[in-house]
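Bumping with the actual sequence this time:
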Amino acid sequence: MHVTGHTPPPATDPATAPQRLTVDLAVSEGPVLLGANGALYGLGDDGVPGDAVLAPLKITSITQKPEGGAQHPNGDALSVSGSFFRNGGGEINVLMQDVYAEWPYENLGIDEYLPKVDKIVREVSAHPHADRFVHIPFNEPDCIWYDLGVPDRARYEANRDRFLRDWTTVYRRIRALAPGARIAGPNETGYHTRLMSDFLAFAQRENVLPEVVTWHELGPDSLRDFQRHHDDYRAIERRLGIAPLRISIDEYANRRDLSVPGQLVQWVSMFERNKVYANQAYWDAAGNLDGNVVRTNIPNGGWWFFRWYAGLTGDTVRVTPPRPHTVDTLQGLASLDTSRRQAQVLLGGSDGDVDVVVRGVPRAVLGRTVVATVAEAAWSGYEGQHAAPRVLVRTRLEVAADGSVTVPLRGAHRMSAYRIVLTPGGAGTPSAPTVPWSASYEVEDAAITGGRVRTLGTVADAGGYAASGTKDVGSLDSASSRIDLTVTVPADGRYDLAVLYGNQSGSPATQRLLVDGADPVTVAYPSTQNWAYRAKKDLTVELSAGTHVLTLAKGDAAVTLDRIDLTARTGAPSASYEATLADIDGSPSYDYSSSAGVGTGALVLREGDRAVFDVYAPRDGYFTVVPRASAAVRLALHGERVTAAPDRPLRLYLVAGNNRVELTARHAAVRSLDVSGAGSTEGTLSYAAACATLTGGAKLVDSAHAFGGSCIDDVGNSPLGAAEFTVHVPESGRYLLVVHYAHDDRRDNGHAYNTDILSRTADVTVGAGAPLRLTFKNTWSREDYWTLGVPVDLRKGTESVTFRNARGRAPRIGRIELGRVFDRFQRDARR
């Protein structure tokens, strides 16, 4: 990849010429809305997903079921509201008909439905934030209860009139109980101009207009047709004299789109351009933001795309893709913030070379020279962890005489999204990013023995799961099953090997990894939701320069394989988080006088200002954190604060996944927060399940995949059941308690396409403190151990950590670990 500071000349061969995406910073589309980051059943329980992955996304709306609704076992609107609102969430749509158990919903008549409506409205009205809920009385009425999509005109009109009578009845019932309640509809499965015209005309005449107009955009054709739908709807409003109503596309995208940054950018760009709200569809399990959060707190590539989207500020500006309104093509969105002096472009959806031509660069804002920073968020699977997006380019560019800058991307990947940030150029040269050699190999191209190649996730199979190259290799279930993949690497050394896989065997599964037929190494794959629900297994191999054959042969169970990535190991994992792109509170200033370091200038913090960085950790453990600042800064992490001198390394305990690190200062210019390491456990306290004292029916049981071969089971369902660990604390202070746990509670509600998993809870008491309720997400099997970290205060000496659950069963506990948030050698700096 390279960049230039002028518009390149036309290519001589149009067939190989780069695609051109044009951004015009001089044409504003209005303030950034961030409306398209919502999710249907994106929250499963309070704490699932975790606060640290919810807060950064600035989610404007979610859609959940009524409290106690029978449609799914969790995701109740009031139950998740605390988690949503404390993390900056906007509004909660209540899908009222999800009070029913069956799908399609039981049709027992409107009189039977009304008491349910009454209960829902009264409960929502009693909530302290009742004004932040929106009632959706009917879901997909074109298919369910009313058959409004019938082609016969007479039947349509009869069904329509029945729906409009029932809409009026329920609308007025809600208004009678809660005059200020907001109501949304009609909420069809897709946009139908016939019904929308009739519905709006009737609702206007009868004074039953919704405050929010809703419909779904689910299939690939929506990427082509949404603009026409939107424009048709607005034309109906104008024809009827209705002031523009808020639009909410409260279900969008197919399985093949979710978690895939290059697909998501296509959907989000068209919704943001039209300033509508939109929620991703719920095709699988609740509680993972519809495929963008791994486990409880770990980002995947889709999460990072939405994190970038949440980072857009100022106004969106016009973006012209090479093929507008075309399915599975290069699309993008962009913003300009004149106060921060930043322009950002998000793009993706196509393989090959791209020229991003940024026009109308305002010299009064960005100057005559800009720094371009280009990063990639790749597809890592639905359950594959993704580190902070890798920076590919940092470079200074001259703004051309016509006010344009061209940023060429070479070798873009269709499933990836890219972010380009333009900031004013200053003195000095940005540090060149380290971009190690890497290569990707589709497993279907390997020599396959005893397996089968499948095609999935295409436009024709939109309900299928995403797959790299739209193919994977499954049925690797015979004793001789294996794949032999030929790879070529440029130099001797260590290589990170990442395997995209699926494991539906019901417990961790293994394969044997051989390099050139040498002694095999066992590879263990945690369980996934199903064979096609991709996760990522990270390994390290030693390879000499040249060609090798990597073999993955069947172990104790079948595993589906998709893609293998090889990346040269260049040292300990590290990332620099740019301060001028962090979340802020207060009124910090932006200083671009120097382009040294990360190239994006410095954020100047004074008293009352705060910057929040989203810092990724591949595992629970200690990492080295260095604030690049002009003066002392104060860091806050997991409820503890420390003062650090400029460029002074700190040893901090980070939990696996995302960590929100806050910086404040009396007066300091901060360039970046640099984080390195793989997660050292040196200095942590570890206690196996066998160390605990068990009472009230709790027992120690064998568990092949637990630490030490055993775990604690049957804690709970009684006030007497408990597991108490006695821990020996070297010094008083703030610690991270990391619980290794497993469980696979489910309740099948009879939905062919939803996996109705349940969470478990436990009350954890440290010493004589008050109990803290923790929520533990389903781990897909009783033998898959995940971690959940929570900050606790411990006193020097002997302390107790006790698990109970008087109201239900706690998860199986494999062990606990405790790590000091700020390591001991930093104690003199704490305050």
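The tokens above came from a reply further down the thread. Residues 153-177 form the longest helix (25 residues).
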